[in-house]
Design a protein that fits this description.
Elements: E1 2-6, E2 9-11, E3 17-24, E4 33-38, E5 45-50, E6 57-59, E7 67-68, E8 76-78, E9 87-94, E10 106-109, E11 113-117
Parallel strand pairs: 2-11
Antiparallel strand pairs: 1-3, 3-8, 4-5, 4-9, 5-6, 7-8, 9-10, 9-11
């Protein structure tokens, strides 16, 4: 199993970014994909996830209404970005179609992509 997050960058507050999670080595629709982030000096935080069927998503309260995972993709659309969204973002795969946003439920992790929101 291999996966890689990409699409990060430097943006101003209020702008948008779309992160992509490129995967290989497993049936994409069989397992949950989650997005997580880690800011300097902070613990890794669950951001969002999508079920293996692609039909259900879940978001942390801190990003609800601003971040979305388009149906049947593992990508993360981030709108109305705030400085507090600055972090390294990771995508991960769980060994189950339902996993939530608890990092301990995810078995495979890709290299992260830096997102910086600053004016």
């Amino acid at each position: 199993v291999q996966l890689q997050a990409s699409g990060g960058g430097l943006v101003q507050p209020g702008e948008s970014l779309r992160l992509s999670c490129t995967t290989s080595g497993f049936p994409f629709n069989d397992y949950a994909i989650g997005w997580f982030r880690q800011a300097p000096g902070k613990e890794r935080e669950g951001v969002s996830c999508i079920t293996g069927s692609g039909g259900s998503t879940h978001y942390a309260d801190s990003v609800g209404g601003r971040f979305t995972i388009p149906r049947n993709t593992g990508n993360l659309q981030m709108n109305s970005l705030k400085p507090e969204d600055t972090a390294v973002y990771y995508c991960a795969v769980a060994l189950t179609p339902l996993a939530g946003i608890d990092p301990s439920m995810y078995a495979y992790w890709g290299r992260g992509t830096q997102v910086t929101v600053s004016s």
